[in-house]
Amino acid sequence: MAQVLGDEKREELEGLFEELLLSTDRDGADTLLEWLREETDFFTAPASTAGHCSYDGGLLVHSINVYKLLNNFNKNIKCEREDSIVVAGLLHDVCKVNFYTKGVRNVKTPGKREWTEQEVYQIEDMLPMGHGEKSVYLLMRHIRLTDEEALAIRWHMGGYDDAARSYIGGMTQSRAFQTYPLAPALAIADMYATYFAD
Fold it and tell me: 11-44 pLDDT, tens per residue?
C-alpha cells in the first residue's frame, strides 16, 4: 500500500470516467454511475491485494488504463461500436467493487529478525460468482450489454481464468475470441495494463 493516488488525480480520473461512461448514451448509464458512486467503493478500491494498482483508487486507475489501451487497439480490431470500447474497457472489473477490505498483518523485515505490522488488503467476496461472469451480472442490472461486450468482459482474464483451463472452457473461450475481436483485445489490454501501466 505504499503508492497513493492523490485527491486531485482521483477527481480528474473520476471526471474522465464519468464523461466517457455517459458519452455512450446507454439507457441506464446514469443509474450505473449512481450505483458505482453511492453503493460501491469503485472509485476508492484497489485493483488487487498486492499486485497491480494495489492502492486506494487503483481500480479506477487500472480501468482507465485498460480503456486507453483498448481504444488504441481499436485501430486494428475496428470494433463497430465505439461505445463497446468504453463499456468493456472501463467496466470489465466491476466484479471488484465491495470486494477488498483493509486489515493488518505481521510482516518480517527483510534481513532482520523483527516483524512489523503492515496494513494490507484482504478479499471479502460477498457475491462469490467468479470474475468476468460476476462483472457481466452486475453490469446487466443497470445497462444492456451486447453479446460482444458480455463475452469480452466474461473472458477478459484470458488463460488466467480457471474455466478456460478445462477442455470445454478453453474451447468456449477460444470460440469467443475467434468470433468477437473485442474479447481477445480486452484480455490483452488488461494483461498489458496489469504488468506495464501501474
Answer: 999 999 999 999 999 999 999 999 999 999 999 9
Kindly state the cell numbers that stand for 198.
501501474
In the chain, % of residues over pLDDT 70: 98
Whether residue 2 has pLDDT greater than 70 = no
**In DSSP terms, which residues pair with 60 in a beta bridge?**
none
Measured on CA atoms in the order 179, 185, 190, 192, is the torsion positive or negative? positive
Q: What is the DSSP letter of 94?
A: G
> Is the Cα dihedral 57, 60, 66, 67 positive or negative?
negative
Q: What are phi and psi for residue 107, nearest 5 degrees?
A: -125, 135
- Give the residue, 76 or 164, on which the prediction is more confident: 76
Compute the radius of gyration of the chain from its Cα atoms.
Answer: 17
- For 1, 93, 184, 188, the CA distances from 44, given in Å and listed in that order, are 13, 14, 28, 25
Q: Where are the domains of the chain?
A: 7-196
Higher pLDDT, 4 or 22: 22
Angstrom distance (rounded) from CA 72 to CA 93: 19
- What sections of 24-166 are H helices per DSSP? 29-39, 58-77, 82-91, 132-139, 147-154
SS3 65: helix
